[in-house]
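Exercise: predict the fold of this chain.
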Amino acid sequence: MNEIPVTNHGTTSLSVGSAVVLPGETKHFPAHLVPIHLRADAQPEAPPADEPDTERLALDEILEHNVTQITEMLPALSLGELDDLEIAETEGKARKGLLSAIVEERLRRASTDDQDAPGDPEMDAYAAGLTEMDDDELAEQLELMEGQPTMIAAIEAELERRAQD
């Protein structure tokens, strides 16, 4: 089996599938579990200089709408797009209603088996791994995921699900 080393050069934990790579740590993973952007040989594709960044244009176009209109668009966005939208909004108008709606959308997806929402394979694998952790492991993961709202929402949803059982 072909394994790829993943080194976390950041200051917060990094999720690969259902595993966590702590800052400064290197772990080896089967190649099929490592997202393209974490592979050492991956080169991010930059848009050609003469073409605008269409993803950024799309975010800017979305952010031109009012909070109610944007909130209605959130279910159609992937988790990555939600993250990008949140960053763009935080750097821009920072509307509290919109930022709350983004968090609520993440929580809704994490707490339900929403098949209509665009999938994020990395997040799906991580969320699936949470069901196999005991409560202490979940509490530890919650501390490690500081600054990663999507992961925190998934952990909190799993804890809520257990509290209801």
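Check your answer against the key: The chain is about 50% helix and 10% strand.
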